[in-house]
Design a protein that fits this description.
This protein is an alpha+beta fold and 190 residues long. Helices cover 48% and strands 23% of the residues.
Length: 190
């Protein structure tokens, strides 16, 4: 919980009363590898914050799933369209490693905002993070080759390669596991 408090303090000063409220308003759950905690078709009434571990966002596409994004410690997760528009979600969220997430329910967030309006930073930051992450993924597919996306991921999230199965990384890059192996081999030869 302290990780979450410290994260929020980057954006707004908190009184002791506000810290206490945050500490006692949200639930922390433990997830095991491959545990899905939000599925396509559900209505999103929660925002999540990753306290520890790796989470993947994936879509069911025909007979397979396609990884769209990875979340790590210190990131918000929100099925934005479903949360904002009360429509069934298209995405799924699954723990890749043993993980701990904080669950921020819509009711609790609204209750906190009524009492402490400056805590709107929680919702705003979650939405901004999702938007920025989405824009980066789209830009990478428009402007980079699969090898360039791989190198960028390796440079910016090296820990991902130690924690996440290669087939998820390949799916995220939009390539087959075999193509990922060829890219890795080519890079090692350089």
């Amino acid at each position: 919980m302290q990780k979450f408090i410290n994260y929020i303090r980057k954006y707004v000063n908190l009184t002791e009363d506000e810290v206490y409220l945050l500490q006692h308003s949200f639930e922390v759950i433990e997830l095991h590898p491959n545990e899905t905690f939000f599925s396509q078709g559900q209505l999103a009434n929660e925002i999540y914050f990753v306290l520890q571990g790796w989470i993947r966002l994936f879509y069911n596409v025909e007979i397979e799933d396609k990884t769209a994004f990875f979340y790590k410690q210190g990131q918000f997760i929100c099925a934005g369209e479903s949360y904002n528009n009360a429509t069934p979600a298209l995405e799924n969220y699954q723990a890749i490693t043993n993980s701990h997430i904080l669950i921020l329910t819509r009711d609790k967030i609204e209750e906190l905002l009524t009492r402490h309006p400056k805590l709107e930073v929680i919702g705003r930051t979650a939405v901004e993070n999702e938007l920025i992450a989405s824009q980066k993924v789209i830009a990478s597919f428009v402007t980079q080759t699969a090898e360039e996306r791989y190198l960028h991921l390796l440079e910016n999230d090296r820990a991902l390669f130690q924690e996440v199965p290669q087939h998820y990384i390949a799916s995220y890059l939009g390539i087959s596991p075999e193509t990922l192996s060829r890219i890795k081999s080519r890079i090692l030869k350089k």
